What we know:
The chain is α/β, with parallel strands linked by helices. The chain contains 7 helices and 11 strands.
Amino acid sequence: MLTVNNLSIAYQDNQVLNDFNLSLDQGDIFALLGDSGSGKSSALRFIAGLDDANAGSIQLNGVQLSSNGTHQISPESRAIGMVFQDYALFPHMTIEKNIAFGISQLAKSERKKRIKELLSLIDLAGMAHKYPHQLSGGEQQRVALARALAPNPKLLLLDEPFSSLDKKHKEQLVKQIRKILKQAKVTAILVTHNEFEANNLADKIGVIKDKQLTIKQQPLKETIKNED
């Protein structure tokens, strides 16, 4: 489904990543762990098509997105969604309009149907006409997730999405978002430096250390593993 081969990233004389290889199947949730400056976000930006690399290729659903460190397909044409740590919701738009932002090309009836499905998925069905400032931080992040899911992306990238939340709300939201991703059957990559987030959200974990990626299967806790 997603294949990253031989990714190498350097900034001038600073080698950040070397021989980064990753393969994910449909519906996999993968967590990328590492210290600050280890290259986690650099790998994510290359997969998203935002930055070039020294070497490396990407295939998504059999389509070549990048080769030899440069991109053949632009970021907006990759069917990749992104969720950031600061939510990036439009404060002047209602929740409904925030979610609808990336699906304006759909017919009105289809757009309303998709918004209704997503509001139900994130358990905010009664809040369509509220504004972001009227929601908690966790609710805002779920709206940001719904907006990213609205166009039915083939891959979802989450860059430190829980970092602004306190421990109590973070633990609750991690469980909620895993359930949402599994129900949506979307493949996702989480970038984090937090082991709790990685252990409780992901099916697999990769750790970047000394410019190298090591991948391991992650046995999830039974309480988190049971999605239904």
